[in-house]
Amino acid sequence: ARKVYLRPGLGVGQLRKWYGCNNGKGTRTEHFRRANAGIIRSVLIQLQEMKVTEMCEGGGRRMTRVGQQDLDRIAGSVFYDAEDE
User: Which of 16, 19, 51, 85 is most solvent-facing, going by the fewest CB within 10 Å?
Assistant: First the structure.
């Protein structure tokens, strides 16, 4: 949810590229491979059902007002807890 919060309009393809990594098979050279789209898509659908994200007009997803408030509240509580320690 944080990546969608920071970059509105983010889609499955961009997240696949972000979470991908180099795939090495022993002695062969490594090549970049994208992450699994099904897992990313199912997470985005779950966030949409929880009313945290919504679809954009031009494609991709963005945060709803409720989702933005939730993430701000969580970030504030983590910040104040870290400050107390």
Answer: 85
- pLDDT at 50 (0 to 100): 92
Cα 25 to Cα 68: distance, rounded to the nearest angstrom: 41
Report the percent of the chain where pLDDT is more than 70.
99
At 26, the amino acid letter reads: G
Please give the Cα distance from 34 to 30 (Å, whole number): 13
Quick one: which H or E segment has residue 33?
Answer: strand 31-33
DSSP string, 54-83: EE-TTSSEEE-HHHHHHHHHHHHHHHHHHH
